[in-house]
Specification:
30% of the residues lie in helices and 22% in strands. The protein has 335 residues and is an alpha+beta fold. Helix 1 packs antiparallel against helix 2. It is rod-shaped and about 140 Å long. The relative contact order is 0.16.
């Protein structure tokens, strides 16, 4: 706009000088020197107009060059965004791929007691494939599979009710290794970190207030040994008894209040039980430990209670997510 205004002003000045020349040529009294001076000024104005035109062309070329450069940068940004989108897509595909294998199912009211010393450390087959999701079950083949992820699934007759998925801190170990004798002494391992990488609960799920897995947060604790007590799977968000405490007050899956938890040896048959709910019931002041179902020894403090569901334990080498509530379970689940 400034260049245009200057150009217009010069053109007006040029017109005035031309008129003056015409007038001068008509006046006899004017000298030749005045005419030459006016002609020189006209020449200067022409040169200035030419220079301004060249400047405008130069500015125009510079602007075009800058636009091309910006378009190049925009193309680079677009290519980077495409790479980022591809990376995100690949991560999502990985998260939603892999295979889950059923290692164990606990039914707390099927007549079989899955206490601390039964199956976990030995990895022997328990139950049958036909009833793998309706009764107590352990797959010896899955128990020895190296795994990086574990899913604990509460289900109703094989339909997912709630699920938590965790990534193990130590990779490529089997459940037999994680629950076996070498890891039982001294036991008390926190085997995951950062909490669950997936937690999904059905809107219709009930009995969540004291569920041993879904009412508390934190990470998975395995082989929680304290005096003559043991709990195979507990959550760090619940109460974890001190190693010398004889308080019968750590609650979870696979329990016994009378055993040697370091050697997998039961001390009688009174105190094993499948599932104890989250509660504060120390032995010194509490004589009613709330359990799920009827699968427990005759110890007088163990109290049968409602069954919240079956609890299935799945493992995977590479699956980071599990089917959502409402999905139907099977012994092997491919994503």
């Amino acid at each position: 706009a400034v260049v245009s205004t200057q150009s217009t002003g010069l053109k007006m000045k040029f017109s005035i000088i031309v008129l003056a020349l015409l007038s001068c040529s008509a006046l006899a009294g004017k000298s030749g020197k005045q005419i030459k001076a006016l002609q020189a000024e006209i020449g200067a104005i022409k040169d200035e107009l030419k220079t301004m035109g060249e400047t405008q062309e130069s500015r125009h070329a510079a602007l075009l060059e800058k636009i091309e450069a910006l378009q190049g940068e925009l193309s680079k940004v677009g290519a980077g965004q495409d790479k980022l989108n591809a990376l995100v897509a690949s991560k999502c595909d990985k998260k939603n791929s892999g295979t889950w294998y059923l290692g164990m199912n606990i039914n707390p009211a099927d007549g079989h007691i899955f206490g601390y010393t039964v199956g976990w450390a030995t990895g022997v087959d328990i139950g049958s494939a036909d009833e793998a999701l309706t009764k107590d079950y352990l797959s010896a083949n899955v128990w020895v599979k190296p795994a990086n992820y574990i899913a604990i699934v509460r289900h109703q007759q094989g339909v997912v009710d709630a699920v938590k998925v965790f990534k193990f801190k130590t990779s490529a170990e089997s459940l037999l290794t994680r629950f076996g004798l070498p890891n039982m002494n001294p036991g008390r391992q926190i085997v995951t970190s950062g909490g669950p990488i997936q937690e999904s609960v059905a809107d219709t799920a009930e009995n969540l207030g004291d569920d041993p897995i879904f009412s508390v947060g934190g990470d998975l604790a395995f082989n929680w040994a304290y005096t003559d007590n043991g709990c195979r799977i507990a959550l760090t968000g619940g109460h974890l008894s001190e190693v010398n405490a004889n308080d019968d007050n750590t609650h979870g899956l696979g329990n016994n209040y009378a055993c040697n938890p370091l050697t997998n040896t039961p001390n009688g048959a009174d105190w094993p039980h499948d599932i104890s709910n989250i509660q504060d019931c120390p032995l010194q002041s509490c004589r009613e430990v709330r359990l799920q179902g009827t699968d427990h020894g005759p110890g007088p403090h163990l109290k049968s209670g409602p069954v919240y569901g079956n609890y299935a334990i799945y493992v995977s080498w590479d699956a980071e997510s599990f089917p959502q509530p409402g999905a139907t379970l099977s012994a092997e689940i491919g994503l």
